[in-house]
Amino acid sequence: MKASSRIFRAARTALALPFLIGAFALGDEPLVGDLDVFVTLPDAYQLTPDDLEARYEQGSWNRNPYFKWLTDDRSRAIFQRKDLGNLKVDLVILGGTVPVEELVVDFEDGRFVGITVSIHNRGDGGKISLEEFTRRRDAVGRHLGEQLQVRPSKREARPTQGVLTQGYAWVSARGKAVLESNHDSDQSIEFLRMRLARRDADGIFEAALQARPGASVRLSELPRFVRKEDGDVFIDEIPMVDQGAKGYCVVASVQRLFEFYGISCDMHQLAQIADSDPEQGTSSLEINKQLKRIDYLFKTRFTCLAVRHGNGLVELVDGQYVGKPIPDAKFGEFIRKNVDQGIPLLWSLEVGLYPEDPPLQEQTSGGHMRMIIGYNDEKGEVIFSDSWGAGHERKRMDAENALSATRGLFVMKPTTR
C-alpha cells in the first residue's frame, strides 16, 4: 500500500478537533489538574471510579476537561494535557514541580490497579532539553523511592535482546514501579514513562518488570477471549487507548494489541521504533518494514496479509514488491481464521467512503488504521475497533464495503504456544 503519512493523520484530526471545540465552553484561564493523589501511597490504592468524578469535577463544562473514560465500564480513564486555543489544561505532579503529558489509570472491579504516566513524549511535548529531562527523571525517581521505601534496581537497555528502554525499577510490599526512557535518550529524547501499581497487579504492570519483553499470553490461550452473541463472533477484552489528535493510529493500534498479549510497550515507544512523525503519522509500508525488523524481540510474528494495488488486494513480497492478486473471498477467510483463534487484525483503510455503525462525523476522511476484531456472516458484516476511547470498542461495517475500503491487512501474533 502506498498511503502517505499525511493521509494517515487526517482521519483522527478531522474527528477530534470539531468534537473538542463543540464540547467545551470558551475559557480565559488555564486549568491545572493536580495528579498527586495518583502517586501518593497508600492513598492511591483507595481510589475508585467515583472518586475520579468527584475529585475532578466537570463543573460548567459540557464535558469533563481533565479526563475521559476510555471504556464504558469505567475500568480505564485518561488525563491529557490540552492546548486547544479555546481550552488549556496543564497536568502536574509532585506539588506542581513536574509537568506531565498524560496519565492513564486502570481499575478492576472498581478497585485501583495502577497508573501509566507519560512524563514526556515527543508526540505531545515536542523537543525537550537534556537538562529538563534529567530534572524530571530525578525528581520522579526520588519520589518513587520514598513512596515504595526501597532502593531501585537499574535497568540497562539491551536492544539485541529486546530490552529497548533504560531506567529503574522499584519493588516492595508497598507496590511496584518502573521509570524508563528510550535507550539512546542522551542523543534523542523520545519519551519518559512511569508505571506505578499495586504489588499484585498483573498485565502490563507485571510485564514492565520482566527482564526481557515478550507476550505473557500464549497463542493457545487466545481463543478464550472469543465471544459469540446473536451471530456476532468477536474478540473481547482488548485494552483501549486514545491516540489523541496525533497521527499515531498505527502505533496506537499496535499498543492495544501488545497490551492484549501482555507486552509492555506503548505508542510513544513504538513511535520511536517505527520512526513515526507525530505530525504526519506512519505509512503502512513503513510500519510493515519496521515491525518485521523488531517483532521477534517481543516474541511475536508480524505478517502482511495483503495490500491494495489498483482495484484489488495483492500479496506484498519482501515488504515492498507487489505479488500475486488475492481473491476477494480471501479477505473474509483471513478475518474468520484469525478471529476464531483470538487474534485481532491490523486494518488500514480509507475512512469515510462507506457507512458504518455507529456513523462517523461526515467530514471524517482519509487514511486510518483500525483493528478488525470480529465478523457476522449472517449479516455480512465486519466488526472493528478504533483507538479513540470509549464508544469505539466495537463497531461494524458491511463486509463488501470493508473490502473495498481496505488498503492493507496485517497480523501480529505471539510465537509462544
What does this structure look like?
With 417 residues, the protein is of the alpha+beta class. The chain folds into two domains: 23-215, no CATH class; 220-414, Cathepsin B, Chain A, CATH 3.90.70.10. 25% of the residues lie in helices and 32% in strands. The protein contains ten helices and 22 strands. The protein has helices spanning 5-23, 49-55, 122-125, 130-148, 204-207, 249-261, 267-274, 284-294, 328-340, 399-405, and strands at 31-34, 67-69, 76-80, 82-83, 88-93, 98-100, 102-108, 111-121, 153-155, 165-172, 175-182, 191-197, 226-229, 232-235, 300-309, 312-317, 321-325, 345-351, 366-376, 381-385, 395-398, 406-414. A hairpin with a 4-residue loop joins β4 (82-83) and β5. The two termini are 31 Å apart. The relative contact order is 0.14. The model is unreliable at 1-27 (pLDDT under 50).
Keywords:
2 domains; 417 residues; 22 strands; 8-stranded antiparallel β-sheet; Cathepsin B, Chain A; alpha+beta; 10-stranded antiparallel β-sheet; disordered N terminus
Average per-residue pLDDT, rounded, comes to 83
Label the structural class: alpha+beta
- List the total number of helices: 10
Percent of residues in beta strands: 25-35%
Q: Per CATH, what is the topology of the largest domain?
A: Cathepsin B, Chain A
**Number of discrete domains:** 2
* Low-pLDDT ranges: 1-27
Distance between the termini: 31 Å
Provide a concise account of the structure shown.
The chain is an alpha+beta fold.
